[in-house]
Structures are given as structure tokens and as C-alpha cells.
Amino acid sequence: MAAEIQIRRKLREGKAVAAVSGLHNADMIDYLGQFGLDGVWIECEHGPVSWEQIGDYSRACDLWGMASIVRVNANEPWLITRTLDRGASGIVVPHVSTKAEAERVVVAAKFGPVGLRGMYSGRRSYGVQDYHRRANEETLVVVLVEEMEAIQNLADILTVEHIDVFHVAPQDLAQTMGHAGNPGHPEVQGTIDRALKQIVDAGRVAGTTVTDENRQRYLDAGVQFLTTNWLPWVAKGARELQQTIAARNT
Q: Strand, helix or coil at 13?
């Protein structure tokens, strides 16, 4: 259980961390590991990842000391428990819009006395003494703030202990505000900024999705948990290559 220790320690020390998404191949995770990323966002809400692949992807992360952070598709105890049993070092739970829903996440993700995670261990327990206590200390728990209901209830949600990151999700939030597909709308951006400030001011860890263009702005705002997708990096390189070739051929 080493991959998740580093990312949680950094967060507790007030440092910023980055997790990259868009990875649906263990070899790509292995390749990107050499660059010292803090974690990989493994997409199980919208992506094609299977139960077997969670094990393979998390092992690839372990090789490089990266956290394997799996977004599940529902706030269901059996789903959270099985994901962690398959080897994930952290979870992301979508659509957490009330204090009760946030508490439900903690109960499912933590063993007693904190929660009631099913008493099974999975591969992360192999060779680990006092596994259940260590799992409680080391498992990264992220909840998504992605609906206006969550924004309205944010003060109460932030009182729930044992949640490491409160991640404001721009796309879904924009949709619930009547701006589907337009997270850049000024009304949406203002809501995101206020939510992030509220999280930081409460002494909790704020997270959000960033791009190369806006990541510094969010870092300056005190956001510690940054997620980004690697596919735009590939797209940028591909466009630049094609532009160079096109200029040569004119």
C-alpha cells in the first residue's frame, strides 16, 4: 500500500497534486508513470473499464508510485467496496449533493470504526500487517460536487469527515444550471469559483478539472487536486504536426 500514501500526504501538507484521465490501457499508464504523475483517474462511470482491468490498471500505477483513483458510476456501497477490493487506491463518487450522500460514501469506503466497508481485503492487503487500519488511513476518497443541489448544500457537505477532496465538476454543473455543454459560461464560472473558495475557506481540499490554459488560475485560487485529460496534449501535437506539413506543402 504505497501508491496512495504519497498523494494523501501531499494533500495533508497543503501541496497540489495532479491526476490524469483518458487512460484506458495499462501500457499507457505504465508509459506515463515515468513522468512522476501523482495519480491516474480511471474512468468507470463513462469509460469501458472492466472489473478485471481495474486490477491491471492499479498494478500499473503501483509500479510507479501513482495513485489509482477510480470513478465509480453510483454512490452504492457494494460498488465502492468491490472497486477498492479490486486494487484501487482511491475512489471518486459522482453526484454527491447532500450531507447524507457524503456520509454514505464514507461508510462504504472505510472499515470500522469509521465506516462499514465489507470485511474483505483484496490484493492490496497481501503481506500487509494490520491492513484494515492502514486502509482507513490511506484510501483516497473524492466526492464530486456537480449539481446545483450540491452547491446549495455545500456548507453541510463540507462538515463530513474522512473525505479527502471535494471536486467541483464543471460539465455536469453547467448542465444543471441550464448551460449544457457550456461550462465556460460566466454564470457557471462564477459558481465554480465561489464553490472552490468556500471549500478552501472551510479548510478542506478543493479539486476541479483544468486545462493547460487555466490550471495556474486554479492553483492561485488554492485548488490542490487538479485533474486533466491527456488527450488534448495528443491533439495539440497532432495539429501542430499537420500545420507544419501543410506549410511545407504550400
A: coil
